Amino acid sequence: MSYQIEPIGIVRSPYKEKFAVPRQPGLVPSARSEIVLQGEANALEAVRGLEQFSHLWLLFLFDQNLEAGWRPTVRPPRLGGNERIGVFASRATFRPNGIGMSAVELIGVRQQGSDVIIELGGVDLVDGTPIVDIKPYVPYSDSLPQAHGGFADREPATLPVVFSEQAESQFQGKQLARQRAVITEVLAQDPRPAYKKGKADTKEYAVHLFDYNVKFTVINGVVTVTALDKPIVK
Questions:
Q1: 8 Å CB contact between 102 and 89
Q2: Residue 94 carries which DSSP code?
Q3: What family is this protein classified in (predicted)?
Q4: Which SS3 state, helix, strand or coil, does residue 190 take?
Q5: Of 25, 63, 111, 119, which cross-links 102 as Cys (Cβ 3.0–4.6 Å)?
Q6: Tens digit of pLDDT for each residue in 64-114?
Q7: For residue 130, how far is the Cα from the chain centroid?
Q8: Do residues 59 and 118 both lie within one domain?
Q9: Are the beta carbons of 33 and 11 closer than 8 angstroms?
Q10: Within 13 Å of residue 75, how many CA atoms lie on the same side as its CB?
């Protein structure tokens, strides 16, 4: 027996590509995202009472990975990208049905023209991700302080982030306070491949955040933002 799932909304987020998306929700609290509801779900009646809750569960599709299929074992970055474990013991993106879930902060709900929009904080989803369901986070049942997190029992360590003179000059005169905070929090997670961490690395990386190509290096455990390119023309 098979079932068909239709997205009820689309995410709009600062993350324009998979590279540098936070590995878990809430790790980049400054990031603001939104869900634009669509189809029959695009109705104010569907979100009536939602603002009583501070957080939501999002169920979504790893749409960029669906065609690649899945395997029964994966190599989580938290284990250095070398050790294999079962896919169901991980939050890997390559899954049998390509479904993910995130607990995120609810900022508000608004209507813009004919669109109902849910404003969120701490989202870890690529821009354009299809949302298949939204549920309220209920603290008394969903929060389990006694739970054990296995190999992911602790929040990952972060790196200090500094800005080069060139990058600093590109911030001058721009209303980029929130963007700067998001860039800092994203890069502090060290988005490089797991096998690169803890090793000498002089390569300059780039990540597409907001409408900017943010270039950075990681040398001696310090992330340096080297340049913030002009907006990318789409």
A1: no
A2: -
A3: Belongs to the tRNA methyltransferase O family.
A4: coil
A5: 25
A6: 877 788 889 988 877 777 789 899 988 888 889 999 999 999 999 999 999
A7: 13
A8: yes
A9: yes
A10: 7
Per DSSP, helices labelled H in the chain are 139-142, 165-171, 177-188
Pairing of strands 161-163, 205-209: unpaired
Range(s) of the domain holding residue 206: 161-228
The values of phi and psi at residue 109, to 5°, are: -130, 135
Q: 125 and 187 share a domain? A: no
pLDDT tens digits, 201-223: 889 999 999 888 999 999 999 99
Q: Is 201 part of a structural domain of the chain?
A: yes
Domain boundary among 97, 115, 142: 142
pLDDT tier at 173, thresholds 50, 70, 90: low
Please provide the distance, in angstroms rounded to a whole number, between the alpha carbons at the two ends of the chain. Answer: 42
Angstrom distance (rounded) from CA 216 to CA 25: 23
Question: Tell me, what CATH number does 113's domain have?
Answer: 2.40.30.70
